Amino acid sequence: MLRQLGLVSIFACAVFCSCLATEKYQEPGPIHLDRAGEKWAEQTLHKLSTEEKVGQLFVVWVRARFLNVEAPEYLQLRDSIHKYHLGGLTMTVPWDPPFLYRSQPYEAAELLNRLQQDSKLPLLIAADFERGVTMRVHGATEFPHAMAFGAAGKLEYAEAFGRITAQEARAIGVHWNFFPDADVNSNPANPIINTRSFGEDPQQVGDLVTAYIRGAQANGMMATVKHFPGHGDTATDSHLGVAQVSGDMTRLKAVELPPFQKAIAAGVDSVMVAHVSVPALDPDPNHVATTSPAIVTGLLKNQLGFKGIVVTDALDMAGLTRLYGAHIGRAAVDAFKAGNDVLLIPADLDASYRAMLEAVRSGEIPPAQLNASVLKILKAKASLGLYKTRLVNIDAVSTLVGKPANLALGQKIADDSITLVRDNGKLLPLKSSGTTETGLPYQKVEEVRDQMIAIIFSDDMRTEAGRKLEREIHERVLDAHVIYVDPRIASVLADDVLKAVDSAQSVIAAVYEVPVPGKVMNAANGLTNSVGLSDASGALLQKILDRAAEKTAVLAMGNPYLAQDFPAVQNYLCTFSNATVSEVSAVKALFGEIATRGHLPVSIPNIAQRGAGIERPAEAAHGGSQHAYSQATGN
Fold first, then answer.
1. Which of 56, 165, 238, 309 has the lowest tally of Cβ within 10 angstroms?
2. pTM for the structure as a whole
3. Which spans in 344-447 are helix H?
4. Distance (Å) of CA 208 to CA 133, 157, 161
5. What is the pLDDT of residues 590-622, one digit of tens each?
6. CA separation for the pair 313, 16 (Å, rounded)
7. What is the pLDDT of residues 497-513, one digit of tens each?
8. Which residues are catalytic?
9. Pick from 171, 96, 83, 184: nearest CA to 127
């Protein structure tokens, strides 16, 4: 009897091990739709009910974190997948403004695997990885903002950006990135694009966009150009209101459209349409581009010849919802009728789904249009290999995410993007001082001189903004005095800050301002968004420059246009990014440890023209005594 039980156990173990050995996981390669995948898509379409077809059009949030299988949030998400037959999910992480709680890669991969198993059809998983997977997940490769790539000016960097992001995204189960940004940021007052754009030159933007697409697609990730037909020349955040692109057709053809045309020619997988009003293309005041047949079907599909997936920007943004207050579900219907294929983040999923079903059943939406869009989505899933297997190998995450060589490249790109716009020849490079190493633990000899002060300006001093910068400064000047300032306390701290400035030999003013969707600020005309300093913080920075401009280095940790409001600045460096790699690069540049090679990809009114940048060799090894020369100077 025991012998028989033993044989049964051995047999069961063999069967179990065999199952494990044959378990299939995604093995991403170049995006390719073969005949088998095409056949699967066509056969699957014919099997779907109307309800299932409509559901395939919708993509909703999934906030990646650990969730128990019985957690209410998990059950609700699983039920939504079943009830609405969802075609995909957009992965993000919990956000409690101003805090974004990034997940771990294993948590994200496990949750996405579980949701894939819960779905009848494979889910198309998207994400906004504008600065790489590290935007949402710890441990991944960190890159600076897109504008930093414009400053570095190397197409191979953009292609590597696409390649690495694709490899890390596919490792955790994400197939589709809502990037690159093809907007030409020609408006310095733009509160929502800014550093998300590669720059203001349509040619350079188009070249960097297509380089990114090459790298992404070759490594199995769908790429998206946004925000069609161009969101760079706007002064309103479309998360808060209707932004208008006021240029005429001549301007649109010369500036806004060329990067999108290059992306389409390069075979980009999808185009995201913006909630912007473009009177030159559609004068109807009740239309934004998302709901405009003239823009989506007439221009994008017919004139520009785009055949891929057209996806709306998030349907819950105020730039759209304020036009549909009485019937929020109609936003989805009008967007689909205009020519969009994928309906992203509806403000009310149930109302939007029911409105779409009603429009299909009544004949308002032709069956042929519905079938065509669903077939595009199914073919996209097939081209990614999801019809064969939809799961990722969680054990492989540790070999694919955060490779040291990739991390080093992200830092190198940030280093090469640092742009020195102004240098009075009296301050930079700064000199290290303050600590003598004894070689014994707990026995450092500190030479306290308090000669340097660093003021960190941010929207909220409770965030991580400036923490890495502070550590990097303290590694070089142990007794540097670091003060954090935000709009709530700027006025209160002003006297203490100015006293410290007066007694210091050198001052660093690091200003953290990057585009934040939906950031609300009070203005004369009501609530608005801005990438500029608040009145209180701006007033303090101006006072610092009024009394100490000669010994102050201003770091634009993001928005490069900052200097136009402070023309007295004498030493000005731009990182175009608030990422940690940019903080490290900024400090290395301040102390002359790296060469400054970057050139402005945008013009700063009354300060410098596009292309300006003072090139300076690394000087730390030479004692830091010489100063820079300018190859392309501004004003």
1. 309
2. 0.91
3. 349-361, 367-383, 397-400, 404-417
4. 19, 9, 10
5. 999 999 999 999 999 999 999 999 999 998 544
6. 45
7. 999 999 999 999 999 99
8. 239, 313
9. 171
